[in-house]
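During the no-cost extension, the postdoctoral fellow (Dr. R.K.) reprocessed legacy sequence entries with the updated structure-token encoder. One reprocessed record is reproduced below for audit purposes.
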Amino acid sequence: MNQDRRLLLIYAIIFVDVIVGSAVAPVLPAFVDDRPHPELWLALGTGLFLGVQLISGPLLGKLSDGYGRRPIFVVSAVGTLLANTLLLPVRLGFYLTNRLSDGLTNGMYATVRSAITDISPPDKLFKNLGIEGAILSLGFVIGPAVSGLLLTIFDVIDPDKQARVVILMAVILSVVNVGLSLLMRETKQTPVVPVSPSELKTELRQAVAVGTLWSRLNQKDAQSPGLRQLVLMQLALTLSTGYYFYFVTFMSFGAMQMDARQISYFFMYFGFLSVIINYVFYTFFADRINQRRTIVWLAGLAVPILAGYGLIGTSTLSLYALVTIDCLTISLIQGLIEGLMARHTTDTDRGEIFGLNQAMQGLASIITTLVFGGLSLLDLRLPFGWFAVCIGAVAWLAWRKPSAPTVAIESVSNPLG
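Re-encoded structure tokens follow.
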């Protein structure tokens, strides 16, 4: 029961965290709409938020391997609270500062996956990581729902006032998450091994030097062949799922011209459907299928879906039809990759591996943000072509057999194989 309580608390923490992030998303255009090319400013903010995880993911993962998962949850919750208070003045500078600071603490998701893996029996690993994905989707329901409800009840029309109301709610929820994190009990089984300042400096240098990420990945792949290919699949998936962040720009400034309420309602539907499908899939099917082959099919079927978003014009019906199929394909891939990756970790390096993976995701986020930001200058529909190509790369990587490791490591055993 102790493990079950800890797992439920982890789920509660990430649930509140994603509610905060998704509730804020529909009002972010208010921070940039008085600037030339507002879509570029939104892309810059997204790039800062995701790209800084290139550094924070490995650092927080390393610290969680040394000091445990709980301290990282607490620090991240406090950091998110402070970052959200920066948004109370609806100004571009505060928005960019928030994206940078919130991205630093968002590196905790490497620790989240490590903590879930710590306390998950092998036969429940896919289910528990899949439920994490379903909870993230549920947050996309509740966050915009609460935002839309607040704006409707108080009949807030002015964009700046809409932003302030939603941000205040996000600050209150962030305080709740600090309390939940303080209640959490440690999940890591091995004793605390303090991380020295020199180790942290080395980790920071390696995180900043992108080339070292690849060499470290090769070393881990030598210990557990196939890990590198999974990380590359995750990287390609991150390149493609940049469309989650681009949706707000596309719906606000594209042909549909949606306001904050309409965007909130869209994400409510997207998240609600996704959580039901994720829960059913990971509860009843994920452990009984060939996961790698399923990724091939899901990613391949997702290619025309992503391309189709760019062709919907002003048709709300087409948008909702495509996102329905989206929930049956792309939304299911993340948990499958994470489940396969978790099998390549041990208790002593779990945070490091998930942190390395999140760093690669941060790098991919920088790349995809630059690409879709540049393409959006030419035509707001073009980025969906890029996203379609990237999800096609996921299918190709999953279809290929893992290559032989490139670095030899002497007598290394991995009980999870």
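DSSP finds 18 helices and no strands in the chain. The radius of gyration is 20 Å. The remaining legacy entries will be reprocessed before the final report is submitted.
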